[in-house]
Amino acid sequence: MTHLLHLDSSARRRSFSRELSAHYARAWDGTRTYRDLAADPVPVIGEAWTEICDALLTKGITDPARYAEVVETPAQKRAWAVVEPLLAELLEADVVLIGAPMYNFAIPAALKTWIDQVTFPRMSLRGKAFVIAGARGGTYAPGTPRAPFDHHERYLRDFIAGHYDVDDVRFVHAELTNALVDPHLAAREDERVASREAAFRAL
Q1: Angstrom distances, CA of residue 141 to CA of 134, 152, 158
Q2: What's the whole-number average pLDDT of the chain?
Q3: Checking DSSP bridges between strand 95-101 and strand 129-135, what pairing results, if any?
């Protein structure tokens, strides 16, 4: 049976990215692990984490099953205690579903912190798939004036392909969500609704 790792990272309890990721998760036919990175934040990496990375490079260890071999000092053991359950969830998943709103042209800090904790040198997750359920206050679709400022999808696509060696990555975005609250975007409410509905159909 296939396994889904479902992550949410929006600071809002009721958010568009959470709505989209939940829609996908409800249709999942398999087992599932859920982690709310905003409600239960992952701590930032520290020096001991960097020492683990350095040791893996020095010893040429790329198999995640062997990472613990380089953990030696008390500080490294404390760092590994944070990493181990997060990494186990990632490695168990066949599909990783991430609810990821755009914050300040990029991803939420809560999601970036998780990425830092579970990413190690020359790490390959080939064979897994990623689904990103995104939400953006404006529109950053190709061809729009703000497309060059999209460091949200671009970062995740480049990172997942470049570091995890995964090319099966699908993005679904609800655009123009700020039309609900920003008077300057009020005239684009119909576009917001259409984008949301298209995102549901895609998922």
Answers
A1: 12, 11, 17
A2: 96
A3: parallel
Looking at residue 5, its amino acid is L
Q: Is 150 helix (H, G, I), strand (E, B) or coil?
A: coil
The token pair at 174 is 């609800």
Nearest to 111 by CA among 135, 77, 79: 135
Contact between 130 and 166 under an 8 Å Cβ cutoff? The reply is: yes
Q: How far apart are the first and last CA of the chain?
A: 20
HEC string of 74-128 equals HHHHHHHHHHHHHHHHHHHCCEEEEEEECECCECCHHHHHHHHHHCCCCCCCECE
Strand order in the sheet with 3-8: 31-36, 3-8, 95-101, 129-135, 169-174
SS3 34: strand
Q: Find tokens 């958010």 and name the residue.
A: 15
Structure tokens at 62: 């790329």
Give residue-wise pLDDT tens across range 149-203.
999 999 999 999 999 999 999 999 999 999 999 999 999 999 999 999 999 999 8
CA distance 153 to 37: 18
Angle at 28 between CA 24 and CA 30, to 5 degrees: 155
SS3 assignment, position 54: helix
Q: Are 175 and 142 in contact (CB under 8 A)?
A: no
